[in-house]
Amino acid sequence: MHELASSQPLRHPSGDARRYLPGMGRIWLLPLYDPFTRLIGIEPVHRKLADQAELASAQRVLEIGCGTGNLALLVKRMRPQLEVAGLDPDPKALARAARKARRAGIDLKLVRGFADQLPYPDASFDRVLSALMFHHLEADLRVASLREVLRVLRPGGSLHLVDFGGNSHNLHGLARLSRRTHTLQDNWDDRIPTLMRDAGLSDPTEIDHLTRRIGRLTYYRATRAE
Fold it and tell me: Tell me, what's the pLDDT at 216?
């Protein structure tokens, strides 16, 4: 297993030549990522996801698409006894996450990699979290990534995901402006639970939603059967 403390993120070799969509859409916009997420009020979004995940019964938690580490750091602050891992394809975002973790004296296990090629053994996590990452995935990688989540979850473990969602005919905010973007086509209506089911996850369910300036953010849960 690839693991590292907060001092520096590990690089997953298979990811070196692959393209990815950065958190702000352009690599050079990364310095604006944390100010932008604060502006849109991301911490309550993250906290709601962490609460949904019922972390008190978990030991090991993975965030896929962890970016600069905001959700992973929040989870570790909420539950210091947890082993928290974060994975992202963007080395610069991971470097920022590592610096924030060091400054806070928090141990995060950071790895550079992709959601459809998780560098972890089978059944190694109790929870997998995903916050506003799923819409970054190309359509052909979504089920592949969810199958990888299924693989690394322990029996009875669960995936907790928040992303743009809602009725495709009743969108607002930035989601309305970008609803025809090809990476968002599989976010509307019941598409995300359908993809979870197609990947083999059990009981995919829409749990709740929040309305933000950027649009409706929908919370989902699915499990690996016992």
Answer: 82
